Predict the structure.
Amino acid sequence: MKHEIQRIGEETLKVLKDMESSEALQELKVKILGKKGSLTALLRQMGGLSPEERPIMGQVVNEVRSRLEQAWEERSAELEAIALEKRLSLERIDITLPGRRVPRGHHHPLTQVMEEIEDIFLGMGFQIAEGPEIESDYYNFEALNLPKEHPAREMQDSFYITEEILLRTQTSPVQVRTMEKLFPYLPVKVIAPGKVYRNDDDATHSPMFHQVEGLIVDHGIRMSDLKGILLNFSRQMFGDSREIRLRPSFFPFTEPSAEVDVSCMLCGGAGCRLCKGTGWIEILGSGMVHPRVLEAGGYDPKEVTGFAFGMGVERIAMLKFGIEDMRLLFDNDLRFLQQF
């Protein structure tokens, strides 16, 4: 019996070395050490041995079992290592290949121009103010000297939500809101960039567009201060050789009012298709803040004066980049946007 147990152990060890899979290894283990295994069957025969032989055979069995279990663990570890190496080789990523670059985006041309406008005026000491896009009729019109039934309201076909609430048609309401907030602080020197809404849609107009409002209120503010600020802006935006001119105009919230033209950046004022032969291109509206607007903001028009201006960001962008149709700015066509 002793020799049979040793024989089973030796033969099993030889077979173990040639095992190529964990499944076959497990099957062999069950065949030898399982409930119906060959080694287990011999162990059951130990009951017929004499008391002197049992300890000897028990020692032999334990030695063989111990050797087999150790051999199984070692071969199992080897097979697992082989399987892992094979899997890693199949799943290996070749890090020497160049990566796939994610396309980099950039700011929309309107964002570029808006940020440039902000940077120019921040450099001149202005601060940025904001106001709600859903505005009351009071701030959008009445506080800006446009009472109900005022004919100038017809110039702005508005999006009303109720009779007293609408989508703001201009960033000018921020003037009064800012003065109310800062009163009695002086000077008031802000720009107000943001979206505005009007029921208008063609090659040069959009139902939603962007404006930048400017406002200065202080003691002794004059029209010449307005011209100096806008001349500096025009030269930084369109080139150092640009000149501006102010043409009399009408806005209910400024008095006197002026349209501001810049010398044509294409022909330098000689006259061309862009400026329609005049040498000048209109860029914004401006004027001295109307006394009633100052009063609505809490300031005494006998003590302080101010000027205001407002420009369409789309118009500035179209002039700066030579864009002829505003709708291109909102089509989200990458072929167009990638040019900027």
About this structure: Residues 109-337 form a domain with the BirA Bifunctional Protein; domain 2 fold (CATH 3.30.930.10). The chain has eleven helices and nine strands. The CA atoms of residues 2 and 57 lie 6 Å apart.
